[in-house]
Amino acid sequence: MSDTQRSSSSVGFAGVTISGTVWSTGQTLFNKVLTIAAIWIISRQLTQDEFGSAALAITVVKFLSVLPPLNMGDVLMLRGSRSARANRIAVVLVLKVGVITTLCLAMGSPLVASFYSQYPSSMFIGLLLVAGMRPSAEAMQVGNLTKLRMSFKNRTIALIDGGVQFACTLIAVVMALMSCGAWVIVIPPTAAVFGKAALYDLARRRSCAITSETVNVLDTDNNRTTSQTIQRQFIATSGGQYFHSIADSLPILVLGKFASEAETGIYAFALSLSGQANTLVAGQIAGVLQPVLGRLADDPHRQAEGYLRTMRLISAIAIPVCVVQALFSEFIFSWVFEERWQPASHIFAVLSICEAFFFASAPTMAMLKAQGRFTTFLAWQSAQLVGSCVLLPIAALLGGGLAVAICATCLWAVGLPVAVWLSLRNSGHTIWDALRLFAIPWLTALPIGMLGWFVGSQSLVLGRGGAILATLVIAPIVLLIMLSATRWTQPAVFREMMLLVRMVIQRVWGLHRLFVGKPIG
Q1: What is the pLDDT of residues 502-511, one digit of tens each?
Q2: What pTM does this model have?
Q3: How far is CA 153 from CA 76, 171, 221, 371, 515, in A?
């Protein structure tokens, strides 16, 4: 393939990824704004202890879900649509895993409650039982969601996810206003997983059903061999995903054991806020990225170039957003949240810096899975988990939530550039190519952000009004200047950024015309 053809292919790849993200990005933007508003309402109704109990229960379920059901979707996408029988075997297997996991969580909940003895036993067991239903619900999603993703039904997935998230947020707000306590954090997300499973099934039946004739043609695999292969692949990818989930969730588990309920709640509150912006772009693009990368498995060079182009786009947006969050955190918390949540502002700032590296996690995992490099994925996450297990308990004992946040940030700041390099090394790229993905946006955003912070700090002489001015006026202007500076530091990325913006605006305008319509006459 010539250089011209490769360049054209990369542009086409980026176009497919961006266009596939527009549906989800537009809806996710609306839902993120709604979610932040809901968190504000919930923060006024829940105590720090209640927030900590709920966050710990959800994290314990993640810790004990050794074989996360949704990882079977990665195995099926790697295999493609080669065998309908293989798909059925995989779906049955993952349903068994989900149900067994839920039953084990239910039986083990009293033991877990005794380990975290500082939490009210009966309430904590109840939270575990509700959160423990999630693996079964996720197992119900796998087959239908995978078929929708492989068929690039991104619009359908976005509509389902956006609608369910909207309903979930409204339910959480109503429950908070009814003083339902920690249940506000646990019940709506669990119900949302079941809702998505039902809607994915309905959408698949309408758009992606496999005819009986196709099944007869494709059913050529040996059952025993296929089942063993799927089990090995599922265990390999689940191991890496499990270790990732634990490394990501370990701060809550450690604080739950070595700190107070209030300290755990403050950390969980800051964590829930810090990652909202990143999932708007990085998380949505990653969902579209994996099936696209999987179809390029026979062309490693094009696959790597497409991944790099997408990562440059994500980093050019995510890092400036995270830098602004970190620098203006104190201004935000000083007038948005009540006094009891003010200790979370410093943790929020540190975790925002962490997010300026963590944004690379979902796309890089998608790349490694699309390459079928589950062993490399497992090795990376194993190393990350070992470092977390050694250092985070020490940090919790020495400095509480803030020290844990700093430690976790340092670990991900080292681990994620290495992971990006691992995903690219087979295509001839060096560690410097991986480091540039982070370094260029950081060097672009940080000087502008520091100047903006200095200007914002001068407004504090106005008191509360100055903090509002810094948050609502100065911070957005600083962010726009950061993004605009990409025009000179990364011109090609800036053009793709403008393409994404135009497509989102066109989509939003299309929805406006749909609901408002043109005046008659």
Answers
A1: 776 666 565 5
A2: 0.77
A3: 16, 27, 27, 22, 23
